[in-house]
Design brief:
Layout (H helix, E strand, L loop, with lengths): L7 H27 L19 H4 L7 H21 L1 H22 L10 H18 L2 H14 L15 H29 L3
Helix pairs in contact: 1-3, 3-4, 3-5, 4-5, 4-7, 5-6, 5-7
Amino acid sequence: MASNAFDWPRIRKGAIVMAAVVAALWLIEGVDTLSNHALDQLGVRPWNLIGLDGILFAPLLHVSWAHVAANSVPLFVLGTVLWASGLRQWIVATVTGWITSGVLAWLLTPIHYVVIGASGVIFGWITYLVVRGFLSRRWPHIVLGLVVMFVYGSVLLGVFPMSTGVSWQSHLGGAIGGLLAAWLLFRRERRRRAKHSVI
């Protein structure tokens, strides 16, 4: 797992990237609204083989302006923090959470629903940042993980079926993806260290 220290250039670049990502989501929602929400049908359609391609599109789509607004702040904050940790970590945590949230939504959501929204990716980022600290045992990672847990820990309750119309399935999938990403990157870093260690 990369040991990159946080510095302002990386944080600034991460903020620019995530601002562009969030702006793109708002633009997509604008197009979706103008099309009478036709784009929403590109989301995950459970137990439909055609609906599997929704795994690729679902995090880019939102059911309303309120939905994309609710996801914008955590996307920007967590995405910026993760980018500042290193591009590899950002990519692995994002892709893993993206895929696992979609897969579990496809497997566990009742038929005739369409699942959309970036919250699965957000859950992946949260669990990744928290678990990374426990695996790496580096104090910057531990402190950051504790801060993330303090700020967003209650959000993780969303992995349980508590609210109607909220995809706990994609939340759970994203959280599992974050755990998987942390483990994969930790294992890679441990192997790298072992390879370069002096006996």
